[in-house]
Write a structure and sequence with these properties.
There is one protein chain. This protein is mainly alpha-helical. Among the domains are: about 100 residues, no CATH class; about 130 residues, Leucine-rich Repeat Variant.
Length: about 775
């Protein structure tokens, strides 16, 4: 086009852009490619050819990005950059709230791209005109904001439900979907992260759609920020520092009528006991929410690093307790109010640290350490080795014991050898015999590079002894077992003590009794020793396989993670040895839980049994084909359970089983397809729909080259399902799974339609 025409079109387009509603009009005209009032100007100004409508524009993300770059550039007609941002930025934020479903995705993409470009090119203006208005509802109720409550009565709404929900959804679109981890965006998000965490904790207690977006925002920040910054933020969320402003103490969250939440002015509680109860309940809920959040950060090692930091805080608490031998300052007549407040603050911090460590040990301790270096860093200094409370063994001892059964490299033992002096001193001087024995076993295992593991060293007690009087399930203490061993060694005709490779029947009976010990560490140790007997195919243990199965199944229901994971490992090992006898029992309990148990307990037990079944499937390999139908039938029934967590777990197991079976699925693929399609379209829970789509992803990956052959009859239905999910699903993770499945399907079909051409040499003998 001539230069004068380009200048005229650009002038008209910029003039329309600065009018009220001009941004939306220009974006709509350019993206839709229509012949309307502004579509022709947009096409000429931006040199875009008219598309095939909204559907074509939705697929052309490059066009959306180009429009975002145009909007981020200040036109020449504007008097100043500040004036342009003041007029355009509110309209850009309005693009995030487009209700038209056909155009919402394109407009949101344009808005997110424009915001990120502005934040990158003009950070101060972008923060003032974009990020601050975006986060205004959360900052209004933040602890860092001075609230002016004049004229507001108790119970007055400070942030309405619609405004709060829209703010959280906009943050999800800009931060998580935009996925730009610049310092400006991370810093602006950190300023309201405490309020988001309070909202997440509140949504976790109630039925609210805000739980999932708040969790994704928190996890995104913890993943994208630097490790030290993430750890500092976690300390702030836990209440150990004031780095992260939380919800204002005069604000309170209430359940909204539309499934969201509202922020109101807190009502004054006259009853001191009730106020104290609510404060303690809120702190407990915050700690539980933080532990659940950390359970999603274990693979990255963030949970382990934070656990180590909490252990160091606990060590500091032990040192302060030893230093503070003086009486309570509150009881001193000369103690000032300032000293009293400082003392109470220290005591509150200590209680918080203890509560946090206890919750982490209960929630994520079994799998918190993903790196052997973290185990080495978890050891305390030698002066505070014995400062831990009685009844709690040091964490590095338990962590080392948990990691030793795994496949460790020689370099890993080099790291663990730094713990040997501490473990030796612990085994000699710690007040609890059980911890002494555990430390001694771990020390020997490290020194022998795992040749003598803690599971085998613990059986050095003498044979032929019975449990003491009282509870028949109570196992004798380690000190009692050592005393009996010494007495037998002093008797002239006593037989030699059994070696670790083959315990006597009396020793096996002692292990079975220890599997019911009230103390979780002793019970878990006994279960792991029983599992090691099954691994070595001990004849006495295999002869009592039914008894062992009963012991393992009963311990699966235990609430301690170390106990039930040890039981799961034992059942998996036993089932891989005798699948014909064990699998029917497991499948029966998975489909029909024990009568008389609560629904929550039964659901948790069934999910644990599902993990057992999947471990058995991996161990059987190709031999799992003969157990294909009962396994798939059990998971299909679990996918229709009223408990959403069990439905998601069953679908996850079903997907992994289908991936393992591959072309051996056969005609049962019809049932799997029907089930997955119905759940992905109709299930009310996002995590269940997400698991259903993930089944399709795993199925396509497992079949690989044989997709078109095995799924010939259902391929079209699966394709339609994935397209429907990609277009209509609101959950971002489910849409991502659908896109991954479409990519797998596209690659498989392309390999069939366009096989790679290879050059072959053929020698033909002519007659």
């Amino acid at each position: 086009a001539p230069a004068w025409l380009r200048r005229l079109c650009g002038h008209l387009l910029s003039e329309r852009l600065l009018r009220p509603g001009g941004v939306q009009a220009v974006v709509r005209g350019v993206l839709e490619g229509t012949d309307g009032e502004y579509g022709s100007f947009g096409s000429q100004h931006h040199k875009f050819r008219g598309g095939a409508g909204a559907e074509a524009a939705a697929l052309d993300w490059r066009k959306c990005d180009a429009v975002g770059k145009i909007l981020a550039a200040c036109p020449q007609q504007c008097l100043s950059l500040e004036d342009y941002y003041r007029q355009v930025c509110p309209q850009i934020l309005d693009l995030l709230h487009i209700q038209d479903k056909a155009a919402a995705r394109q407009f949101q993409r344009v808005a997110t791209t424009t915001l990120l470009i502005m934040a990158r090119e003009q950070p101060q203006l972008a923060e003032r005109h974009l990020l601050q208005p975006l986060l205004a509802p959360l900052r209004r109720c933040s602890e860092a904001t001075e609230l002016t409550l004049e004229g507001l009565t108790a119970g007055a709404v400070l942030v309405p439900e619609a405004e709060l929900g829209s703010c959280v959804e906009d943050m999800l679109k800009v931060y998580v979907v935009g996925n730009d981890s610049s310092s400006l965006l991370l810093g602006s998000l950190q300023s309201v992260l405490g309020v988001v965490f309070s909202l997440y904790s509140f949504a976790k207690q109630n039925v609210s759609y805000l739980r999932s977006p708040c969790q994704e925002i928190l996890l995104w920040f913890l993943e994208k920020a630097e490790r030290e910054q993430s750890l500092a933020v976690l300390e702030g969320l836990a209440g150990l520092s004031s780095l992260v402003p939380t919800l204002h103490p005069q604000c309170q969250l209430r359940v909204g009528s539309e499934g969201g939440a509202t922020v109101i002015v807190e009502e004054t509680i006259s009853d001191e006991d009730e106020a104290l109860y609510q404060k303690i309940s809120s702190e407990q809920c915050h700690v539980e929410s933080l532990v659940e959040l950390l359970s999603h950060c274990q693979k990255s090692g963030l949970a382990g690093d934070f656990f180590i930091r909490c252990l160091k805080e606990l060590t500091q608490v032990a040192v302060e307790d030893e230093d503070e031998a003086a009486p309570n300052p509150a009881g001193e007549p000369g103690g000032s109010l300032l000293e009293l407040e400082q003392y109470r603050a220290r005591q509150g911090r200590r209680l918080l640290v203890l509560q946090l460590v206890a919750a982490l040990c209960e929630g994520v301790s079994d799998t918190v350490f993903t790196d052997i270096e973290q185990v080495g860093r978890s050891s305390p200094p030698r002066p505070t080795l014995l400062g831990a409370p009685q009844g709690v063994h040091p964490p590095y001892a338990g962590a080392s014991a948990a990691l030793l059964p795994a496949q460790l490299k020689s370099s890993d033992f080099g790291v663990l050898k730094r713990l040997v002096p501490l473990l030796e001193e612990l085994s000699r001087t710690y007040p609890e015999p059980l911890t002494q024995e555990l430390a001694s076993d771990v020390r020997v295992a490290i020194c022998t590079h795992g040749a003598c593991s803690p599971g085998t060293l613990g059986r050095r007690a003498g044979a032929g002894a019975q449990s003491p009087a009282g509870d028949p399930r109570r196992a004798p203490s380690p000190s009692a077992r050592r005393e009996r061993s010494k007495e037998q060694s002093r008797e002239p005709g006593a037989p030699p003590a059994p070696c670790a490779d083959g315990p006597a029947p009396a020793g096996l009976q002692e292990l079975l009794l220890s599997a019911y010990d009230p103390q979780p560490p002793s019970r878990a140790a006994a279960l792991r020793r029983l599992a090691s007997l099954v691994t070595r195919r001990d004849p006495e243990a295999l002869r009592l396989q039914e008894k062992l199965l009963q012991v393992f199944l009963e311990n699966v229901q235990h609430e301690d993670a170390f106990v039930y994971l040890s039981a799961i490992q034992g059942i998996a090992l036993l089932s891989s040895e005798y699948p014909e006898q064990i699998l029917p029992v497991l499948l029966a309990q998975y489909e029909c839980p024990a009568q008389g148990t609560e629904d929550a307990v039964a659901g948790a037990t069934r999910m644990k049994l599902g993990e057992v079944l999947m471990r058995v499937t991996r161990a059987l390999g190709d031999m799992v084909f003969q157990h294909r139908e009962p396994l798939i039938r059990a998971f299909l029934r679990g996918a229709r359970d009223p408990d959403s967590a069990l439905r998601a777990s069953s679908l996850s197991n079903l997907g992994e089983l289908c991936q393992h079976l591959g072309f051996q699925l056969g005609s049962i693929v019809q049932e799997v397809t029907c089930c997955v399609t119905a759940i992905a379209r109709t299930d009310p829970e996002a995590e269940v729909r997400r698991a259903a789509v993930h089944v399709v992803v795993l199925l396509l990956r497992g079949l690989s080259e044989k997709v078109t052959e095995v799924l010939r009859d259902v391929l079209r239905d699966l394709y339609r399902l994935l397209k429907h999910v990609a277009a209509a699903e609101r959950d971002a993770a489910t849409v991502l799974h659908a896109q991954l499945a479409l990519e797998e399907l596209d690659a498989a079909v392309r390999r069939v339609l366009f096989p790679p051409q290879t050059l072959q040499k053929k020698i033909v003998v002519l007659p």
